Request: fold
Amino acid sequence: MRLNQFIIVCLCCLFMANTASANVIPEMVEGFQAQGASVGDADAGEALWKKKFMVEGKARSCQSCHTLDLTKAGSHIRTGKIIEPMAPSVTLTRFSEVKKVHKWFRRNCKWVLSRECSIQEKVDILLFLQKQ
Amino acid sequence: MTRFILVLIMSVFIAQNVYAADNFLGVPRFKGVEPIKNALYQANCAECHFAYFPGLLPARSWRDLMAPKSLENHFGDNAELDEMDRRMITNFLVNNAADDSHYKRSIKIRRSIADGDVPVRITKVPYIKRKHSEIPDRLIRGNPKVRSLSYCLNCHTQAASKGVFDDDTVFIKGYGEWDD
Reply:
């Protein structure tokens, strides 16, 4: 009996830990602010999200793969693979892992802007995405 | 006596498994390539295209592809990883590469590559090139539903689930079945 109860408690804990895929944006924004970023500005984030950068004679932007309407699915500009909507209000699993967000900021900023995004730019973009 | 026979049969059976060569009496042991899955690999190499099975390339090709410099410019895209993940994924790919596989397509792939060659594309492996040489380009690059030979799943209906690429399981998106 004791053991059974213990196992049930363990299972419950596991279950809760698993489902608690909370949105990590607030936590990340705080982290960047602790490193010196300002409060941030969602409008600046939106402007950067839409801004076109010329690379190898072609315009690139965050919208190249994530589309204009963030509540709709995008598709990878080269491979065509479907990318679930970026809006956290539509895709509930969005922004649930700090490591994943860092990874894609690094990859996508380098691909679009030809450099890493600054912590301020990341804060702005995250605030913009959070509102969707 | 029966016990002796049993032991004998078992020995033969065990021996066969231990010496599981490429093939048994000329017939390869397994179809396709091994449909092996790995959570870390799926999370990091299946975001832009399906996760290519390790048995589609030899270990030396995977090592080349997975070098930090190669990932930074991954066929014109950026597939950078953090160092821990990069190492673990490289090990997974190298350990399950075509080199020691008992699967039919992996054996054909590795045998078609010359010793010194290190193809970084599956589509540049001689065996894979040869198998697709008769498909007109309008069904591949000229076909918006396929885009490139690199996207195996746009034609091979059983590749993702079973690692099977047999010609009788092909359905070319935007075109249809293939009979040559």
